[in-house]
Design a protein that fits this description.
Layout lengths: L4 E6 L6 E7 L4 H10 L3 E4 L15 E4 L6 E5 L4 E5 L4 H8 L4 E2 L11 H6 L7 H4 L6 E7 L5 E5 L4 H7 L8 E8 L1 E2 L4 E9 L2 H11 L5 E6 L11 E8 L16 E2 L11 H14 L3 E8 H5 L5 E2 L10 E9 L3 H14 L5 E8 L14 E9 L3 H16 L3 E2 L9 H7 L3 H11 L8 H5 L5
Parallel strand pairs: 2-4, 3-4, 15-17
Antiparallel strand pairs: 1-2, 5-6, 6-10, 7-11, 8-9, 8-10, 12-14, 12-16, 13-14, 13-19, 18-20, 18-21, 19-20
Bound molecules: flavin-adenine dinucleotide.
Length: 448
């Protein structure tokens, strides 16, 4: 294909990686050319999915970063019309000063809207507002046949729901419409509560989460015994305009981690020490702390390339969700297994999910709890250990987030995602020659 080059790519976790042909279309006509000429391909946004969802070492990877035009914005309705390569960073930069915010944002602003839709990302407000797809009115999808299909809840709704969370395997989203929310200020009024263990954290979530639009807890994934799952809950509501607030956008300054950072510096001992300090530095209770949205939603973005902190072998992010019924017991079991193992959970985050998007077979959120943690890649034993954790999650009726996954087995994904058979049928219909594929799709046998 004209202009394509070979590149080694990975996800944000830097494990695994693969060599692929990449093309960077700038216009729809270039994208159509990629779609018609490539024997196999997958779209890639900013590569912030952690594992192997966004590259295809058996063929082409289509970078969408130049398909990033704003098409229109209607301040009356709040509807933004943009191409799929536009990023959260770009949208907030332009629209926060005008008093608008995205209805759902993940923990980094460096994602494209196409990538975010293909993972159906959730934010800290899932218990109130659901995931991203709930706010997307429609999109256009370039399918392997070369058709540009308009998808909404009313028109081609089967394709709409198969694409939401569908990891780029039904087509390439070219542009979409999303309803933004009005913003009075760039600040969140945050309440902090320390919870001495997991039971206290869950009690606080259930007792008062409904008061907050945004809710999340940092969790000490190394503490054990009576402190198992000790957490700091950070919950807040958009701050009204007033003293100390404005409509300032986020800063674009960041510090970069060099690629020579020795991964062994992050180990159970150093992280245990860090977690103790982090837990104690927060007061037992603090109220209405005015915090800029950047620090609240994207705390890690100030350190660009922070994924290098885990060293060249990379890291995994293990994120699972379990339903409320039996969820507490499953969380405790997982935390205990980690506490007894050699594998420390770093940067663990606990949230509550509200109702998921039931019509979407591969969308991750389900009503219940979700826990996400980073795990540096150490040895093969870790993969066996995580299979044990998968079984606990699966037995509790839970599931793993595929947008973060790099190692799940194909049979496990079938147990976890009930609607998979129907999704595979639709995939076979829209992509009969199995051209839309990725390393993840082959690993999980999502390409029938
Ligand atoms: C620090 C950090 C915090 C995060 N926090 C959260 C969080 O709170 N909640 C959450 O849900 N996720 C979270 N994530 C995951 C991240 O939000 C998602 O993986 C997101 O989809 C990545 O967007 P991207 O543009 O980088 O997509 P990529 O990683 O490049 O691609 C992701 C998937 O989307 C597909 N895709 C990309 N563009 C298109 C397109 N135009 N059409 C069709 N398919 C496409 C790709 O094929 C791939 O399967 C986080 C990631 C990081 C690194």
């Amino acid at each position: 294909m004209t202009g394509s080059i070979e590149r080694q790519l990975s996800g944000w976790g830097r494990y695994p990686s693969g060599t692929t042909e990449v093309c960077r279309p700038e216009r729809l006509s270039d994208l159509r050319e990629c779609m018609s000429e490539a024997t196999s391909l997958v779209a890639r946004g900013l590569g912030r999915s952690y594992g192997d969802a966004a590259f295809n070492s058996a063929g082409f990877t289509v970078l969408t970063e130049r398909l990033n035009r704003f098409v229109a914005f209607d301040a009356e309705s709040g509807i933004l019309d943009c191409e799929a390569g536009v990023t959260v960073d770009e949208i907030l930069s332009v629209l926060v000063p005008r008093g608008f915010f995205l209805p759902v944002v993940p923990g980094t602003k460096y994602v494209t809207m196409g990538g975010a839709l293909a993972c159906d990302v959730h934010g800290k407000n899932h218990h109130k507002d659901g995931s991203l797809s709930r706010h997307v009115t429609d999109f256009r999808l370039l399918t392997p046949s070369g058709d540009l299909v308009f998808c909404s809840r009313e028109e081609n709704s089967d394709l709409f729901w198969a694409t939401v969370g569908g990891l780029g395997l039904t087509g390439i989203v070219t542009d979409l419409r999303i309803k933004l929310i009005p913003l009075e200020s760039s600040y969140v009024s945050v309440d902090y509560d320390r919870a001495e263990n997991i039971d206290k954290a869950l009690e606080l979530f259930h007792e008062s989460d409904e008061k907050y639009k945004y809710s999340v807890a940092w969790l000490d994934g190394i503490a054990s015994g009576r402190s198992l799952g000790r957490s700091v809950l950070m919950r807040g509501n958009p701050a009204a305009a007033g003293p100390g607030t404005d409509l300032s956008r986020h800063s674009s300054r960041s510090f970069s981690v060099p690629d020579v950072f020795p991964g062994f510096l992050l180990n159970r001992v150093s992280v245990r020490a860090f977690n103790t300090v982090y837990y104690r530095k927060h007061p037992r209770k603090a109220r209405e702390v005015l915090t800029h949205y950047e620090s609240f939603f994207f705390p890690l973005d100030r350190l660009s390339n922070w994924n290098r902190l885990y060293g060249k072998k990379g890291f995994l992010q293990y994120q699972f969700a379990v339903p409320y019924e039996g969820g507490r017991e499953a969380l405790i079991k997982v935390l205990e297994l980690f506490a007894k193992s050699r594998y420390g959970m770093f940067l663990a985050v606990l949230k509550r999910f509200g109702p998921g998007e039931a019509a979407s077979a591969l969308s991750f959120p389900m009503p219940g709890y979700t826990l996400a943690a980073d795990l540096p890649c150490r040895d093969a034993g870790m993969f066996d250990f995580l299979r044990q954790i998968d079984r606990v999650v699966s037995a509790a009726g839970g599931r793993i987030y595929l947008g973060k996954d790099a190692r799940l087995a194909a049979d496990a994904v079938r147990e976890m995602y009930e609607g998979l058979d129907a999704w595979l049928e639709l995939k076979a219909r829209v992509d009969p020659d199995r051209r839309l594929t990725s390393d993840l799709a082959r690993r999980l046998e999502l390409v029938p």
